[in-house]
Design the sequence.
């Protein structure tokens, strides 16, 4: 799994290790059953995206000049792809066994029966038959392989949708079958003929709910409804077998020249090209005989290394929508988002921010306060300007609606919309058009770079002749998205600290007018100052360590891959700096290697909420500095994205961040250590008090919000 000198772990293999950690939650008997099913679904969705993006990228690299690419990357993409496919095969086998041998039997023990190949009860057979004839059949498109001929006799390739599921069908004409159909079918093997039919998951739910009998809840796959009626779909044929398959296509958008022409039009063209992009994976039921598989792989031009054996069912991400009945031990206890009394006691959000910096920790605390901030700004007669960056927003975004309201109320609203946010391009374009129609000034992606920063700027006129204009900033680690705020663990800072807000304005001036950012004392902004500032902060810890003083740093990111920063962490470790890393996803740093990284510990935390925040804490000889950021320590974030890191100055806010990170470092329930091989080693100590960071964080914030423990208002100690 290591590259030369064991210095770095391959990023794709590291990501697969993370996804396996997700799968580990599905195996954990202490996790409520419905949540285990959810983690199985998340694993499936993650792997699909991995093939559509990363495996696609590896295949593209392989097609280029091998020696040059290997030298540039430091690894052979063909070798990496081979390793990736081997790991995926092992994980896929385990995934299928987990579903069939553990989760399905346990669901049955809870009175939930998911029909597969077993005979249906008579009442359910009749329901399935009626449902097929009344609803399903209208959406089916059966196709014989041999019918793919053009009018001139030339062979045409059928089109398979990347997000669709299909059933391959092996048939033999009955003696009294339809001769005209038999004549047109060319593909045959020992008299077998081949066809396929779509499973219309784009039109109908994947799981069909059947009648409850004796308090037992019954469901079946849409796949099985179609299998049970193949004789209706193919009259005149004897059914010899069927198997499911799906095709993943590349979905990595490649814009050749962002500096010329209309970028929005180019994005729209690329979105259309996704639909017909080259295949990267043909996933099929591994129980099928290869001789019966071959006609389909020939038809769809599938290469041998694009074949992947799976189980009877694919795209089990649909399990997220399986309508499981509520019951004891089925789901985790609810965590109702907490209110913040100190904000509720103020007449408005802007008034509260005037008093001191405010922090919100999602999803533990309510996202309602962010919505209130924008809604109040939209109708405040003194607010005259609102600037926002939007990277991923909800399909029915309340934030966007507040911005439309602000524009209707005569505010100067400027929104920077990132139309290159992968898989959100279409949604972002749609919102950009709606906002523009409402009078919002829209700015699109910068050429050659994505804007990943999450920030807003609100400008307010003075209330009286003696007052001064006031500016407010919202800076966050997560997107302006009230939907993901319910499941992503993030932080959002609201501040009126003048030097900080002035620098936020500089970033917006760069985005809107391409004005040089200039010197920054507070914000860390990539691709300009963020990396250099982090390097300087690490160097300071190195200096303290070499002087024999306490030197420590704690970093929390989603991904750690950028080699310059990793090498600096290695240098810090060699100097004796104690380094704690919380890395949820990709981690290319190899911890615990004597003489290179022996003082570095890497923890991966996967629980009911997705850890998404980016936090950096530097001991600084006792004068601790804390930064939050939108940026991971990945090459793309450091060099190819506009990202913003911001310091935390307020003592109360610092206390909260420090404590939440402490819970994560102490977690011995959901945390794993990443070892030198990049594998997940659960942290378990039977003698220690159990610590589950996400639950501990919620309980601590809940207690802190109670009236008797309400913190007093303190002035910021930020430098000017």
Sequence:
């Amino acid at each position: 799994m290591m590259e030369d000198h064991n210095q770095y772990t391959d990023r794709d293999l590291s990501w697969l290790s993370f996804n396996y950690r997700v799968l580990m939650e599905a195996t954990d008997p202490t996790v409520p059953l419905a949540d285990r099913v959810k983690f199985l679904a998340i694993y499936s969705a993650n792997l699909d995206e991995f093939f559509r993006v990363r495996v696609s990228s590896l295949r593209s690299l392989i097609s280029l000049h091998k020696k040059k690419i290997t030298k540039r990357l430091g690894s052979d993409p063909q070798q990496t792809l081979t390793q990736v496919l081997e790991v995926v095969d092992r994980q896929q086998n385990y995934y299928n066994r987990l579903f069939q041998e553990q989760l399905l039997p346990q669901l049955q023990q809870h009175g939930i029966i998911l029909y597969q190949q077993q005979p249906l009860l008579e009442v359910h057979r009749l329901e399935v038959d009626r449902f097929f004839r009344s609803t399903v059949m209208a959406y089916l498109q059966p196709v014989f392989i041999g019918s793919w001929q053009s009018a001139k006799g030339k062979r045409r390739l059928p089109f398979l949708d990347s997000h669709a599921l299909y059933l391959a069908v092996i048939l033999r004409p009955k003696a009294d079958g339809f001769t005209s159909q038999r004549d047109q079918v060319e593909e045959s093997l020992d008299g077998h003929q081949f066809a396929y039919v779509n499973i219309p998951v784009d039109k109908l739910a994947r799981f069909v709910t059947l009648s409850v009998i004796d308090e037992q809840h019954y469901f079946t796959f849409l796949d099985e409804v179609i299998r049970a009626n193949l004789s209706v779909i193919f009259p005149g044929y004897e059914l010899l077998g069927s198997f499911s398959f799906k095709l993943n296509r590349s979905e990595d958008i490649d814009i050749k020249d962002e500096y010329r022409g209309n970028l929005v039009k180019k994005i729209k063209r690329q979105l259309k090209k996704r639909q017909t992009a080259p295949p990267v994976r043909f996933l099929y039921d591994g129980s099928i005989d290869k001789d019966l598989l071959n006609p389909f792989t020939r038809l769809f031009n599938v290469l041998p290394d694009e074949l992947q054996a799976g189980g009877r069912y694919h795209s089990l991400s649909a399990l997220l929508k399986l309508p499981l009945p509520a019951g004891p031990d089925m789901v985790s206890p609810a965590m109702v988002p907490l209110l913040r009394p100190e904000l509720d006691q103020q007449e408005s959000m802007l008034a509260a921010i005037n008093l001191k910096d405010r922090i919100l920790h999602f999803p533990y605390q309510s996202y309602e306060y962010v919505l209130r901030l924008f809604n109040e700004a939209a109708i405040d007669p003194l607010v005259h300007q609102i600037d926002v960056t939007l990277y991923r927003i909800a399909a029915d975004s309340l934030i966007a609606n507040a911005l439309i309201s602000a524009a209707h109320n005569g505010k100067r609203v400027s929104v920077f919309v990132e139309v290159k946010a992968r898989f959100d391009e279409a949604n972002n374009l749609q919102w950009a058009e709606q906002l523009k129609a409402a009078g919002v000034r829209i700015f699109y992606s910068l050429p050659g770079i994505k804007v990943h920063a999450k920030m807003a700027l609100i400008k307010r006129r003075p209330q009286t002749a003696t007052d001064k204009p006031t500016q407010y900033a919202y800076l966050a680690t997560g997107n302006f998205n009230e939907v993901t705020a319910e499941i992503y663990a993030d932080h959002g800072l609201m501040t009126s600290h003048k030097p900080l807000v002035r620098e936020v304005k500089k970033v917006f001036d760069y985005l809107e007018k391409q004005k040089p950012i200039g010197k920054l004392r507070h914000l860390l902004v990539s691709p300009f100052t963020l990396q250099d500032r982090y390097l300087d902060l690490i160097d300071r810890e190195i200096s303290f360590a070499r002087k024999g003083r306490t030197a420590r740093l704690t970093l929390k990111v989603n991904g750690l891959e950028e080699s310059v920063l990793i090498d600096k962490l290695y240098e810090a470790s060699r100097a004796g700096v104690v380094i704690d890393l919380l890395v949820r996803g990709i981690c290319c740093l190899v911890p615990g290697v004597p003489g290179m990284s022996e003082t570095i510990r890497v923890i991966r935390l996967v629980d009911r909420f997705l850890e998404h925040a980016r936090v950096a804490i530097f001991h600084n000889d006792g004068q601790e500095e804390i930064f939050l950021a939108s940026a991971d320590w990945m090459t793309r974030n450091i060099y190819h994205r506009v990202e913003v890191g911001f310091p935390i100055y307020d003592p109360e806010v610092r206390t909260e961040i420090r404590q939440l990170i402490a819970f994560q470092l102490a977690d011995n329930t959901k945390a794993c250590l990443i070892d030198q091989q990049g594998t997940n080693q659960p942290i378990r100590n039977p003698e220690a008090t159990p610590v589950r960071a996400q639950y501990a964080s919620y309980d601590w914030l809940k207690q802190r919000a109670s009236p008797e423990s309400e913190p007093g208002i303190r002035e910021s100690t930020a430098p000017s």
